[in-house]
């Protein structure tokens, strides 16, 4: 018997069906080892010796070792990329140390598609583990560890509010922050275009745009004001026009190449609104296998690749399919050959394509869920289209000139003569690109010298087919319409914020990161609170912008785009065997260690002063009236500057605490107006009692209402949280005043005579009678609950948290681990459970509708993500540090860095607010804070 090891149980289940009884296919559940979670795991003093420890996968390793007792071969069949090679290397190292490989031949096989033929062909051509790929993995792992472990404690000490800085993630954050800075300094410029409706001698209508005025060619901003536009309209009105020139040419548009990882993520984002993680999770399932009529079938090839190359067999099958399905005209004379631009394309194999082109989306639709079908349809169409004939377009440009040739206009149009690949696939434009309004716009027949006349009335402008809604909203703000002439006002637009698609494309262009890292980069930035997503665009949070400034100010070289890209190239050279991996580490560490040592000597005040000086010209540009842009608008004599708090950077007054003026990071208006608040504070009216303005704002703990912009010295403005269930956009003045009036006295208790109060606490709305508290089941009850209802709630016995939850629903057994999987709703929302492993259900999925396959996928992903021994708690780290004479503060920082990130309990709690309601009154006393601490430990 031969033992075959792959990463996931789903993949093992599929391959097991392809092999006979002479094979046993087992799953490793991803990496079986990781770096030891303590200082010195990568030791530069010992030539970068790396210390590894087993993850908590004794069952998987034990089963593999047990199966090898009666095996002749161990076949390592992990993924065909750098990470897959590393997993196989770790497995062989661990099993050899356990003595489980005595008399066992170890072989490595790879396949980029999970089909019966591909798997059997791979088994017939085994090889040894590629040490160069393993060394490239070790170098990347060491670099990331050294940067994170060395730099993060410095950040915690010198820059409060920062969690950590990743080597590649920080560069992506810099891109997002710099784009935001470009948007903030952007000043829109007005310009006008002149469009004229003409009639040909046969009375057919066409539209032309003004290109020359007074004998000069107009640039984009050539007509800058309404007065200029009026003058241009008058010039057109006074002239007679004829056709001066007609240009005709045939254009050929070639199809885009097949998908690699980057282009798949970009196009899935644009066409399907899938995030990078969602795209890769769905692609993973399509690659590993889907149950089709009782047989598990891998539908696409491996989804982590830089390559855009197709195998000869795939090209031949595609051309055959095109001929049969669309006709011979759609098959180009010669096969299309695509070449990868990257120097070392992720150990390139093949582009992402269907494993069987004749398995159409319609054929498999009933076997796939919604996401799987959408992504498979996208991959199938792109692959078929890439081998189809080019589209042919006829393009015509007509120049119309006045008799003196001082005024000229141009009309353009094109028509698809042969649709070619466009019959099947249209590639979406890059973010911010102009729509091609001339495509499929056919101009009427004209001849050179034909006189054309203006229409008496301007035709209503038609919205071009496919025009984006957001672009339609940017159309003309004002018009001048007269006698078939239209002067249209425009304003230049700032560069668009990065979407997931455009950020991945930019990272790829710069050579930063690799296909397997893009999804993780975007996820980490959001999980650490450095960016947020609004309308599918990345917006840097204040803490993210301050972090970028800190890194560029004190570690600029190591977070430059070229430096990061060069490191990626060196890793590729390591995988190609042309450079020693430890030399790369030595060259990096020598200078980086000195930079970190210097940063450790800085005081926090020095850091803030340096950041204030660096960000000052940006956030406090000179005012047109010559006044000091840093003058505090509240106290009048304080100086505004950068401050750093728990939640990141902000602008504050130098007279604090006497002056409490603060605002979020934003560029001040050159005329002295208050800058826009990033959280989009909304003024909803004025309090009639105090005559103070009332705002709706968004804070780190959610939306709230605030009375007044400033409070007396030493105090804060009165605030109140907006309860869950209320849309902040719909909060009006009446509701806001009711919230600001809390706590509200409901009435006197009939027995005790003490007041019953209704209020909103840290865990939601509640009522209070003395020291007795009850949660309110409906958020709105805090404003409306009456005395009888309140007394009734207080009379009910207090329920222990979670006591009324429904029992778990049994879904079935895990195919590999053999344990039962259950689903239920917990204190943080719906979940599935396998033993002591819990996985949260995605939004919209409940314990009632989750399937066993979905649960297995979630459990497997959770096991792979959270595998590893828990790190030492900060208290233990401090005690150990004191015993060794080390700095306890640094030890605590290291412990925090090494502790795996906690789940996003805030978002989980939103799914089940009742389960998080308070048992005690919200208070700042230690007694009231104790339950929160206990929950955090749990």
Please describe what this structure looks like.
This protein is of the alpha+beta class and 938 residues long. The protein has six domains: 128 residues, Rossmann fold (3-Layer(aba) Sandwich); 151 residues, Topoisomerase I, domain 2, CATH 1.10.460; 166 residues, Topoisomerase I, domain 3, CATH 2.70.20.10; 113 residues, Topoisomerase I, domain 4; 58 residues, Bacterial Topoisomerase I, domain 1 (2-Layer Sandwich), CATH 3.30.65; 110 residues, no CATH class. The chain is built from 27 helices and 36 strands. A six-stranded antiparallel β-barrel has the order 9-10-16-15-12-17.
Q: Could you name the key traits of this structure?
A:
single chain; 938 residues; alpha+beta; Rossmann fold; Topoisomerase I, domain 2; Topoisomerase I, domain 3; 6 domains; 6-stranded antiparallel β-barrel; 4-stranded parallel β-sheet; 35% helix; globular; disordered C terminus
CATH fold annotation of the largest domain: Topoisomerase I, domain 3
Estimate nothing, just give the exact number of structural domains: 6
Structural class: alpha+beta
Strand content: 15-25%
- The total of helices stands at 27
E-strand count: 36
**Main sheet record:** 6 strands, antiparallel, barrel
Radius of gyration: 33 Å
The assigned CATH architecture of the largest domain is: Distorted Sandwich
């Amino acid at each position: 018997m031969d033992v075959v090891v792959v990463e996931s149980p789903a993949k093992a289940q599929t391959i097991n069906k392809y092999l006979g009884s002479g094979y046993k296919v087992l799953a490793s559940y991803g990496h079986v080892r990781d770096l030891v979670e303590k200082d010195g795991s990568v030791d530069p003093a010992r030539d970068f010796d790396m210390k590894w420890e087993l993850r908590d996968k004794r069952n998987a390793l034990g089963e593999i070792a047990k199966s090898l007792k009666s095996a002749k071969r161990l076949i390592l069949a992990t993924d065909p990329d750098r990470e897959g090679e590393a997993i196989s290397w770790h497995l062989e190292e661990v099993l050899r140390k356990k003595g489980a490989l005595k008399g066992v031949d170890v072989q490595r096989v790879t396949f980029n598609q999970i089909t019966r033929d591909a798997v059997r062909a791979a088994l017939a051509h085994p090889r040894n583990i590629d040490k160069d790929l393993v060394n490239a993995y070790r170098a990347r792992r060491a670099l990331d560890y050294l940067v994170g472990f060395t730099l993060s404690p410095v950040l915690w000490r010198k820059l409060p509010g920062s969690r950590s800085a990743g080597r590649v993630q920080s560069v992506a954050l810099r891109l997002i922050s710099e784009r935001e800075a470009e948007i903030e300094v952007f000043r829109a410029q007005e310009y006008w275009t002149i469009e004229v409706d003409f009639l040909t001698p046969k009375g057919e209508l066409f539209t032309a745009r003004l290109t020359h005025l007074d004998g000069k060619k107009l640039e984009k901003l050539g007509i800058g004001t309404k007065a200029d536009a009026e003058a241009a309209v008058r010039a057109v009105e006074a002239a007679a026009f004829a056709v001066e020139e007609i240009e005709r040419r045939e254009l050929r548009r070639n199809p885009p190449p097949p998908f690699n990882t980057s282009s798949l993520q970009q196009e899935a984002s644009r066409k399907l609104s899938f995030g990078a993680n969602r795209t890769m999770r769905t692609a993973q399932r399509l690659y590993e296998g889907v149950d089709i009529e009782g047989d598990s079938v891998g539908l696409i090839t491996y989804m982590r690749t830089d390559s855009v190359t197709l195998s000869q067999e795939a090209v031949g099958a595609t051309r055959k399919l095109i001929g049969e399905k669309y006709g011979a005209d759609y098959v180009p004379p010669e096969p299309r050959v695509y070449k990868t631009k990257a120097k070392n394309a992720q150990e390139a194999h093949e582009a992402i394509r269907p494993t069987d082109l004749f398995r159409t989306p319609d054929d498999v639709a009933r076997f796939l869920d919604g996401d799987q079908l959408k992504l498979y349809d996208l991959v199938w169409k792109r692959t078929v289209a890439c081998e189809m004939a080019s589209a042919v377009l006829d393009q015509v440009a007509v120049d119309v000139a006045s008799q003196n040739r001082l005024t000229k206009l141009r009309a353009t149009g094109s028509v698809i003569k042969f649709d070619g690949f466009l019959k099947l696939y249209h590639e979406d434009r890059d973010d911010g690109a102009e729509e091609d309004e001339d495509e499929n716009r056919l101009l009427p027949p004209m001849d050179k010298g034909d006189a054309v006349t203006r229409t008496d009335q301007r035709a209503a402008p038609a919205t071009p087919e496919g025009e984006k809604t957001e672009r339609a909203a940017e159309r003309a703000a004002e018009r001048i319409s007269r006698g078939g002439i239209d002067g249209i006002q425009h304003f230049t637009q700032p560069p668009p914020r990065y979407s997931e698609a455009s950020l991945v494309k930019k990272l790829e262009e710069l050579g930063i990161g690799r296909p397997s890292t893009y999804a993780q980069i975007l996820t980490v930035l959001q999980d650490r609170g450095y960016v947020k997503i609004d309308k599918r665009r990345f917006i840097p949070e204040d803490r993210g912008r301050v972090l970028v400034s800190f890194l560029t100010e004190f570690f600029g070289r190591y977070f430059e785009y070229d430096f990061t890209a060069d490191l990626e190239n060196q890793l590729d050279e390591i995988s190609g065997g042309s450079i020693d991996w430890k030399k790369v580490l030595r060259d990096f560490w020598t200078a980086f260690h000195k930079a970190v040592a210097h940063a450790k000597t800085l005081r926090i005040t020095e850091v803030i002063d340096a950041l204030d000086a660096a960000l000052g010209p940006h956030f406090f540009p000179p005012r047109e009236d010559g006044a000091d842009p840093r003058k505090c608008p509240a106290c009048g004599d304080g100086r505004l500057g950068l401050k750093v708090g728990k939640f990141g950077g902000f602008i504050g007054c130098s007279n604090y605490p006497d002056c409490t003026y603060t605002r979020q990071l934003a560029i001040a208006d050159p005329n002295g107006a208050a800058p826009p608040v990033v959280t989009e504070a909304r003024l909803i009216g004025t309090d009639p009692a105090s005559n103070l303005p009332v705002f709706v704002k968004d804070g780190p703990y959610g939306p709230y209402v605030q009375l007044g912009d400033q409070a007396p010295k030493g105090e804060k403005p009165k605030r109140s949280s907006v309860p869950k269930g209320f849309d902040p956009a719909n909060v009006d003045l009446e509701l806001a005043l009711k919230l600001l009036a809390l706590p509200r006295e409901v009435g006197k208790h009939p027995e005790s005579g003490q007041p019953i109060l209704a209020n909103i606490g840290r865990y939601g709305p509640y009522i209070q009678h003395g020291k007795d508290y009850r949660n309110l089941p409906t958020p709105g009850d805090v404003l409306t609950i009456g005395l009888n209802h309140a007394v009734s709630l207080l009379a009910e016995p207090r329920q222990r948290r979670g006591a009324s939850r429904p029992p778990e629903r049994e879904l079935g057994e895990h195919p590999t681990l053999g344990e039962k999987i259950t689903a239920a709703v917990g204190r943080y929302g719906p979940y599935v459970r396998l033993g002591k492993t819990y996985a949260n259900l995605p939004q919209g999925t409940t314990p009632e509708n989750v399937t066993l396959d979905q649960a297995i996928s979630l459990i497997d992903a959770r096991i792979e993500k959270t595998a590893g021994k828990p790190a030492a708690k900060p208290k233990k780290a401090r005690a150990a540090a004191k015993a060794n004479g080390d700095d306890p503060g640094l030890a605590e920082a290291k412990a925090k860095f090494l502790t795996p990130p906690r789940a996003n309990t805030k978002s989980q709690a939103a799914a089940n607010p009742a389960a998080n309601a308070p048992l005690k009154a919200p208070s700042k006393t230690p007694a009231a804070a104790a339950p929160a601490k206990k929950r955090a430990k749990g």
